[in-house]
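> forwarded from #structure-qc
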């Protein structure tokens, strides 16, 4: 009986001791936390994500927004005087700030971690105002002395974020994302004009043509066909031979020659074009389409339209007898006939060149 009472007494004594230790620990912890919160800050550190790549924000801009504009002396301000949630909300009001995380580290330093917005396109609206737009349609002002390499859209309706222009803004975001993701097109396409019917006209860096892009339906296929045209045509005959390239038709490119230049007349429909120069385009296509030339049998000359039209179509033309071989046979039979006069030769039909596009 005495042994049982002694064991119970020891358990109670150990419980009291443990309770006292816990209470002392809690008091010490609260006192330390109070001392920590009442202590002044030792400094401030601003961290910008991708600071080496993006230069929209400067650390001094964040310090000005969070500290200097609010007249906060970091080295003489205690931790308990700071409203960190409020500071995060203020940081997010900056147009180039996507998100902010603010906290106090173990050294009593104010840590400000800021995530910058990434622009998707540069906008020039009808009023002449210029700004960047992100993928979530957020507008960011232009930073003086710094331009980010994004697709440039001009003639954009006012207030791109307005509900009335929601469709055109979504098209701009989709086309800007597609062009900006490809280093070749991001460098080649210098300007994208927005038309009143919400279609697009591309202005390239090399070639100087107006590229009638149309809507964004099948946009990637249109760009693939245009790259095929560059490889099979432009690198062989020159980049300045056509003034308009029309991509609005499915599976083909309609190219209008420049004024004063006449497309070469090829008699042999199976004869390939000369090989491209060694310094052709830096990008390659997995299955470039073959090139064929077709001369229509019944084409009427048009005196009022000197420029021929080049159409890039999908699919391969049927094989036919080379026109040069047939011409030699006709010359042997009708050699005694009178040759056509120079005037009649000028009125001869101009051929239309059919270039198969990439129809994958």
């Amino acid at each position: 009986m005495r042994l049982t009472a002694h064991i119970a007494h020891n358990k109670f004594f150990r419980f009291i001791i443990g309770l006292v230790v816990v209470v002392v620990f809690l008091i010490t912890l609260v006192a330390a936390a109070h001392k920590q919160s009442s202590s002044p800050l030792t400094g401030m550190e601003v961290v910008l994500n991708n600071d080496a790549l993006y230069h929209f924000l400067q650390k001094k801009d964040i310090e000005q927004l969070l500290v200097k504009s609010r007249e906060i002396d970091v080295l003489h301000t205690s931790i308990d005087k700071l409203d960190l949630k409020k500071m995060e909300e203020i940081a997010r009001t900056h147009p180039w700030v996507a998100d902010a995380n603010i906290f106090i580290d173990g050294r009593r330093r104010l840590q400000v971690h800021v995530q910058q917005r990434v622009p998707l396109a540069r906008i020039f609206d009808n009023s002449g105002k210029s700004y960047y737009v992100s993928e979530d349609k957020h507008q960011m002002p232009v930073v003086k002395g710094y331009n980010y390499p994004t697709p440039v859209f001009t003639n954009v309706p006012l207030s791109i974020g307005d509900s009335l222009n929601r469709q055109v803004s979504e098209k701009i975001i989709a086309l800007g994302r597609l062009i900006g993701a490809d280093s070749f097109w991001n460098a080649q396409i210098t300007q994208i004009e927005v038309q009143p019917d919400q279609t697009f006209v591309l202005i390239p860096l090399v070639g100087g043509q107006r590229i009638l892009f149309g809507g964004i339906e099948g946009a990637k296929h249109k760009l693939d066909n245009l790259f095929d045209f560059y490889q099979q045509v432009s690198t062989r005959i020159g980049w300045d031979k056509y003034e308009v390239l029309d991509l609005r038709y499915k599976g083909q490119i309609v190219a209008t020659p420049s004024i004063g230049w006449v497309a070469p007349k090829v008699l042999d429909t199976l004869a390939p074009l000369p090989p491209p120069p060694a310094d052709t385009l830096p990008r390659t296509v997995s299955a470039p389409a073959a090139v064929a030339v077709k001369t229509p049998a019944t084409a009427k000359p048009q005196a009022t339209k000197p420029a021929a039209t080049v159409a890039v179509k999908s699919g391969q033309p049927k094989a036919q007898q080379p026109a040069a071989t047939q011409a030699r046979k006709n010359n042997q039979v009708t050699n005694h006939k009178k040759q056509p006069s120079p005037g009649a030769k000028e009125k001869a039909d101009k051929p239309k060149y059919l270039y198969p596009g990439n129809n994958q």
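QC bot note: DSSP finds eight helices and 14 strands in the chain. The mean pLDDT is 74.
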